[in-house]
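sorry for the late reply, my laptop died twice this morning and i had to redo everyting from scratch. anyway the thing you sent over, i finally got around to it. pasting the sequence first so we're on the same page, its 227 residues, then the predicted structure underneath. double check i copied it right bc i was rushing
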Amino acid sequence: MPKPVEQPKLAIVIAAAGTGRRFGGDKLSARIGSHTVLEASVDRLQEALPEAPVIVVVSSTCVEKWRSVLGVDEIISGGNRRQDSVRIGVDATLALGIDTVVIHDGARPTVHADDVRATVGAIEGADGAILCGPVPDTVKRVSNEGAVLETIDRDRLRLAQTPQVFRVAALEEAWTACDLDREWSDEAAILEAAGGTVHAVAARHPNPKITTPADLELVRALIGDGS
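ok and here's the structure:
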């Protein structure tokens, strides 16, 4: 009889400590339907992984505000950069005895539960797994002056999304091995630079990130909210 696959001990970290500079304000408090953006993002992850504890990392000025709104295990203050906030959140999970962390951007409130679970499942045999979208447009590489140098094959390109799922031990090794004074785009990039294996999972449902007011209108349209 085959030995059953041991399920990972999961915790969820929601990164929500950004300033919303490009949005022009507090995008996480914007309303979509009956919820704020951050509430909707948390709800999506809790729906997908109802047994996993949830830690939300917010800016220091918003901790008390969100504690009165969100029903999660812990809300903590983040750092100056996204990567600092994520590490603070992951460190906070260690006391829970978890071995795998699911990191999600608080500004992605439409992620589908099936895509979350598929990304968690893809970590088997790897150090990490990330949800990704296709590149729909033709991609050009250009010079500093704007001259087109070449057309890049988009079939092997992906747009990184969240959630991103990592084995905590591998992530900690990568943090030790890499220069964290450098700005990293996401934790997958850190793990890749340290020689880790990361699997890409194709998103089957829309999962836009709210960066600008136009993105908020797109998300409202996706959920049928006429706010």
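Residues 79 and 214 are 27 Å apart (CA to CA).
thats about all i looked at so far, will dig more tmrw
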